[in-house]
Amino acid sequence: MNLILLGPPGAGKGTQAKRLEERFGLVQISTGDMLRAEVKSGSAIGLEAKAIMERGELIPDSVITAMLAARVEQPDAARGFILDGFPRTTPQAEALDVMLAGKGLVLDHVIELQVDDAKMVERISGRYTCAKCGEGYHDTFKQPKTAGVCDVCGGTEFTRRADDKAETVGARLAAYHRQTAPLLPYYEAQNKLRSVDGMAEMSAVTSDLERILTSGA
Ligand code: ADP
Ligand code: ADP
Ligand code: ZN
Hints:
alpha/beta, binds adenosine-5'-diphosphate, binds zinc ion
């Protein structure tokens, strides 16, 4: 099973992708995580991407599409994957269709997490992650059970993304509406689009997604 989670920054794509990975034996492919790893390693892609990401703009389609194509070739992707953060433009969606057709693969579901834009700033600016295991947290909506200690690995260091500051969030939401929202009618025309209420509690969103994946409804 191969699926896409669509939605603006902060919609809960990463949170839900991690939950579905375990439940359905899929692998999460997050182009944002991949780019942050490139930036950290100081690679050529990372050097190009860093400033663009800090401005809240999108990496050129050719760069990101090549990176995604190489990732889908990895053996673990053969189990089925959840695309989180890709595609983000119509050319990326078209390139993905060609890539999948070439491999004889299909997209089983494209699921939109529908959220209220005004609330996204709060979601994004409260986001932080365990530095050791990558578990996601939120200042208001998901705090560790013991303050300062990761529930999953016991780590005590946490990180915040450079682009999760209030100044950049507006640019990222604008990029979503201008460049990514046109993918909703694109997938609707392919009869693949489903929408769930991304403003509900995390576990309710997970249940809605599980229902779609298990019944196709
Ligand atoms: P995305 O990958 O779409 O950018 P994340 O999954 O990283 O979004 O979620 C953004 C922030 O909001 C995180 O701090 C996460 O813990 C929190 N969050 C995710 N889903 C919900 C939800 N349904 N309700 C409240 N907070 C949420
Ligand atoms: P979020 O879901 O919270 O917006 P991501 O982690 O998916 O954030 O992406 C962070 C940044 O990485 C984006 O603002 C953009 O600069 C870059 N990026 C990630 N995926 C893509 C993509 N498919 N195309 C272009 N840029 C991307
Ligand atoms: Zn941890």
